[in-house]
Design goal:
This protein is 27% helix and 28% strand. It has two domains: 3-133 and 306-340, Medium-chain alcohol dehydrogenases, catalytic domain (Quinone Oxidoreductase, Chain A, domain 1, Alpha-Beta Complex), CATH 3.90.180; 149-287, Rossmann fold (3-Layer(aba) Sandwich). By secondary structure, the protein is an alpha/beta fold. The chain is globular and about 65 Å long. Bound molecules: zinc ion (2 copies).
């Protein structure tokens, strides 16, 4: 019998564990013994009781890797002990989007953790179709970061970044950093990254940013964009923070006919901005949510970029609260905080 400790956010700033017996897998399911589980910005929003769509109490954690502990009766393409990660979203399979293969736009798209099976736990049960074996050399740490890599892959694909384009990435959390690294790989000329954390900006440079801007240190984003682009503005921008001020930067930094892609989660979704540049400069703004057929590429990219470099802090599962507090503490020099159940 397998017992799993499952971490939960009870109320603002409070976590608790419950123990549960892991049910035998249904025929198309796989049980994974979690080896590494990363905290995501969305988990932090939940911990602050500020996630726009997740009410408390809530289990958290959806970026993980581990070993297969049990297989459903019809799962023949995987084996016990195999090192894997998994796509943590669930689609209905019968809505129009699903039938067209666009499961990322499923009417009932949800995440495993939203129904009480989070990855801040010893075990997690997933559909076999969502499971991806880790390439032989990939660490569990990197495996846990394939999911945020997939988010960045999806955003960069949606933005259709092209050879020679100039790009601005606002926010150097894991998604912003990986987005910057991917834009450089796509052939972007300038990749400007802005953030208030000098440590994260150093990482941005290592991953391929051509220029970094720290407004907290008196550096001026619009001036940097002007210098980098001959005054025209960037072709593509990525908003990876989720605030009104950074949304406005993403729009106002664009060249004529530029495209802003919004990835951040807005704790305050209602914002105000001047729409006239949208019309005068024929700008486009789009959102990017999660992923859809992006995991295979994300596995390759996670290996090529060396995403385990973003894993800065490690905690035991029972220290979930310290892990969350560390991730929220701007002075901790953390990028990705991982739990090792
Ligand atoms: Zn995430
Ligand atoms: Zn669906």
């Amino acid at each position: 019998m397998m017992i799993s400790r499952v971490g939960q956010v009870i109320s603002e700033g409070k976590v608790a564990f419950f123990e549960r017996e892991v049910a035998a897998p249904k025929k198309d399911e796989v049980i994974i013994r979690i080896k590494a589980s990363a905290l995501c910005g969305s988990d932090l929003h939940t911990y602050k009781a500020a996630h726009p769509t997740v009410p408390l109490p809530a289990t958290i954690g959806h970026e993980f890797s581990g070993d297969i502990a049990a297989l459903g009766s019809t799962v023949h393409h995987l084996s016990i002990g195999q090192r894997v990660t998994a796509e943590p979203c669930e689609a209905c399979g019968v809505c129009e989007a699903c039938l067209k293969g666009e499961y990322g736009s499923c009417d009932k798209l949800s995440f495993i953790y939203r129904r009480g099976d989070g990855a801040m736990a010893d075990y997690i049960t997933v559909k076999a179709a969502s499971v991806f074996p880790l390439p032989g050399h990939m660490s569990y740490e990197a495996g846990a970061l394939v999911e945020p890599t997939a988010v960045a892959v999806h955003a960069v694909r949606r933005a259709d970044v092209r050879l020679g384009e100039n790009v601005l990435v606002i926010g150097a959390g894991a998604i912003g950093l990986i987005t910057a690294a991917l834009c450089k790989r796509m052939g972007a000329h300038e990749v400007i990254v802005t953030d208030m954390d000098p440590f994260r900006l150093e990482m941005a440079k290592i991953l391929g940013a051509t220029r970094t801007v720290d407004p907290g240190n008196g550096e001026d984003l619009s001036e940097t964009v002007r210098l980098a682009t001959g005054g025209r503005g960037v072709d593509k921008s990525f908003e990876c923070v989720g605030r009104e001020s950074t949304f406005v930067q993403a729009v106002t930094s664009l060249r004529k006919q530029g495209l802003a892609t919004v990835v951040g989660i807005f704790e305050k979704p209602q914002i105000t901005f001047c729409v006239m540049p949208l019309i005068n400069n024929e700008l486009r703004i789009q959102g990017s949510q999660g992923y859809c057929w992006d995991f295979p590429t994300a596995l390759q990219m996670a290996a090529e970029i060396g995403v385990e470099r973003l894993a800065t802090h490690f905690f035991d599962l029972e220290d979930l609260k310290s892990a969350l507090d560390t991730a929220l503490d701007r002075s901790s020099r953390s990028i990705k905080v991982l739990l090792k159940p």
